[in-house]
Amino acid sequence: MDGKLISDAVAAARRALKELEPTEVPARLRRIAASSARWLPAPLERTLIEALDEHGWLREKALDEMPAEVVGPSRLFLERPNDWDAEIGRIAAAAAVAEEQRLIGDLTRQVEALTMQRDQARDKVKALQANLESERAAHREAIAALRDVRKPSAPQPPDQTRYVEELVERNKTLVQRLADRERRLDKTRADLLKARRAIPRSESTETEIRPADPVSLGRQLDRMMANARPDPAIGGVPVRQAGPSDGPTPGVFELPRGLTPDSAAAIGFLVDRSEPVWVIVDGYNASFHVDGVGFATPAARTRVTNGLAGLRARASGPMRITVVWDSTEDETEAPTATGIERKFVADADEEVRRLSHEATGDVVVISTDREVHAGVAPGTLVLWSEALADWLRAR
Hints:
The protein is an alpha/beta fold. It is elongated and about 115 Å long. The chain has three domains: about 5-80, no CATH class; about 115-200 and about 210-235, Up-down Bundle (Methane Monooxygenase Hydroxylase, Chain G, domain 1); about 265-395, Rossmann fold. α1 (about 5-20) crosses α5, α5 (about 75-80) runs antiparallel to α6 (about 85-150) and α6 (about 85-150) runs antiparallel to α7. Strands 3-4-2-1-5-6 form a six-stranded mixed beta sheet, sandwiched between helices. The protein has 14 helices and six strands. Helices cover about 60% and strands about 10% of the residues.
């Protein structure tokens, strides 16, 4: 018999036991009689229900303690009229059906809300892709026209010179617009990732209902965002920071001459340094360049963490590494055997920027996000996630 179904009978029996003299309480019920807890532990509750089922005198005393307005399964269990057990079974079945319908209704509303979010996100991605493709086509036309204009070796007339200058300016504008589109696509990917993590998980019940559609929906949206990234062959990658053209400036932490922030050699430079350094990594940004479509899986996070542990182990000097992941729950994991500190926050980009401002000494931020680059503390050495991915693949 389910204790929740006859909770009033259990409570009345506990009151009845407390009214008995200690010598009148059966040995197996003494712990129950002595308990002042609001709810009995499950083993003691089962013992009390078994005693009520076996002893009519205990049921009578429980009935004396039960308020007259209490009806339903508890009174049927204590009074034992004809077919009392069948009636309790019908009540229990009706309650189970009602609870199941409530759960189905809740899950249906959740699925509808998530489906609407998916459709809105998909429409947004399609619009961005269409605009980006239009900009690419215009960019290709401008480049082709510029090449055609530059073919003649004879001096160009003034009108043609102005036309070339206009094409050059238009090309610069198109490059900037393409970069802005890329940034918006990156933000949309992050929003979709957060929406996928917000999918609720229902608690386990006797009749478990598993809404598989939202989970597969989240995975499909991840794949859509990976496919929506621009083609590098037509100029769709972000404009990278150029490496320093001269030697390192005294007192400033920067790459040596000849190294660029998107090269594996830049990571090798960190490994060879003997001075202490703090490396802060934009987690999902790095895992995308390491794993591609599967960048948001736990396995991808583990691969990035293990790769960073290998980087730290090879470092010639002291190296602290913190990797920051987007998450719906704020949590910081202390460095484990790998020596890597992991942080889970609602906005990883903002946390990376904040950590760079709190740090002292030499600091490196690894990310391809322009908003991250623009917000880090002055003097921070910014490397691209491609550099880390290439370095890890070469190991």
